[in-house]
Design a protein that fits this description.
Elements: H1 9-19, E1 23-31, H2 37-50, E2 54-60, E3 63-71, H3 75-83, E4 94-95, E5 107-111, E6 132-134, H4 136-143, E7 148-152, H5 156-159, E8 162-164, H6 175-185, E9 194-198, H7 203-214, E10 220-223, H8 226-237, E11 243-247, E12 256-257, E13 276-278, E14 287-289, H9 292-297, H10 304-310, H11 314-321
Parallel strand pairs: 2-5, 6-10, 7-9, 9-10
Antiparallel strand pairs: 1-3, 1-4, 2-3, 8-11, 11-12, 13-14
């Protein structure tokens, strides 16, 4: 029985293009106790592979975190399958603002210790004692209140290209880095301010809100469904949009435009730009912001050294990489010294 991918990303992309069918990019999460994570993982793979679902899904004892792509014609079948799983019945699905048939090219369902790497000891506090979930309309009201502190729970490379007006945007590489920094910086406001948080789809705020209540914050709120759901509600209800720029997403799109504002700069020349790319040199794979002009000049690479390697025959590039591991901290490497105009 097939429980893993048999096609490469290139082969899958060719099949998607040939099929010419619309696909939907979706994300969802749910904190719930999962007894046997391996059996649940295999159950999802068997069923979702038949539906041609692609994506990156993490499963842990504490729940599921999923970003995926499903053929539009299979959406109802996919939704029925979710509803057949007791703790996923009627789970909120965040539909991407901008669709791309190539957002995911493989189905990867992995068993992890946590569905988000937060570095917290969940046994030390009540993870179910969460903050108040608010919709877009209430969120807009709250962030105009002078007694509110608005905090972006995402990482530096995410908030760099888009964030809510007047939000605190911690200069951190990972979610776990932000938790203690925010708590320390706002400790004098635990009782007199409203702590309002947001992230991409809501999952990081879900755990953070319980953590901050445990740490003594009296008034904790989180944006229900994150930036994705906020944008949907703003558009549907004709509300004022208080987000500026692009929303970073963790798939091949790397971002979806919320407003026309470009608030970031090309990391190589400094010109206004908010397009994230990965360095074409596979031994580097650095995530950074690059404009079209620099992409042409640098042949899609982050540095002259990578450009020279990328110009070599592919077999020579493979030989240079032999025995070396590419760091999976590609986002942290976005602070590379080769980038003159990095944040």
């Amino acid at each position: 029985m097939q429980l893993y991918n048999t096609l490469s990303a290139k082969e899958r992309a060719a099949l998607i293009e040939k099929a010419g069918k619309e696909r939907l990019t979706i994300s969802f999460y749910k904190y719930a106790y999962i007894g046997n994570t391996s059996i649940f993982r295999n159950h999802l793979f068997i069923n979702w592979d038949l539906m041609e679902v692609l994506g990156r899904i993490y499963i842990a004892k504490e729940g599921i975190n999923a970003q995926l792509s499903v053929p539009a014609e299979n959406f109802d079948v996919f939704k029925d399958h979710l509803d057949s799983i007791s703790f996923l019945k009627n789970v909120r699905l965040n539909i991407a603002i901008e669709q791309d048939n190539m957002s995911f090219l493989k189905l990867k369902i992995k068993v992890r210790n946590k569905i988000v790497a937060d570095g917290l000891n969940d046994n030390a506090f009540d993870v179910t004692n969460k903050g108040v979930h608010v919709n877009a309309e209430k969120f807009n009201e709250l962030i105009e209140d002078p007694d509110t502190v608005l905090v972006d729970m995402r990482n530096h490379y995410e908030s760099e290209i888009g964030h809510f007006k007047n939000a605190i945007t911690p200069d951190v590489d990972t979610f776990r880095d932000s938790l203690d920094i925010i708590e320390n910086n706002l400790k004098q406001h635990k009782e007199d301010k409203k702590l309002v948080m947001y992230c991409t789809g809501g999952i990081r705020c879900e755990k953070a809100s319980a953590y901050y209540k445990h740490k003594g914050f009296k008034n904790v709120y989180q944006l229900e469904g994150g930036i994705i759901e906020y944008t949907r509600q703003v558009n549907a209800k004709k509300l004022e949009n208080k987000f500026i720029g692009k929303n970073f997403v963790f798939d091949h799109r790397r971002g979806e435009r919320i407003t026309e504002d470009v608030i970031a700069n090309c990391h190589q020349c400094g010109e206004p730009c908010d397009t994230h790319v990965n360095c074409a040199n596979e031994a580097c794979h650095l995530l950074f912001i690059q404009c079209k002009k620099c992409a042409t000049i640098m042949n899609d690479c982050c540095s002259t050294a990578c450009k020279e390697i990328y110009a070599l025959p592919y077999e020579e590039q493979k030989e240079l990489r032999r025995g070396k591991t590419v760091s999976n901290k590609i986002f942290k490497k976005g602070r590379s010294e080769v980038l003159k105009f990095k944040k």
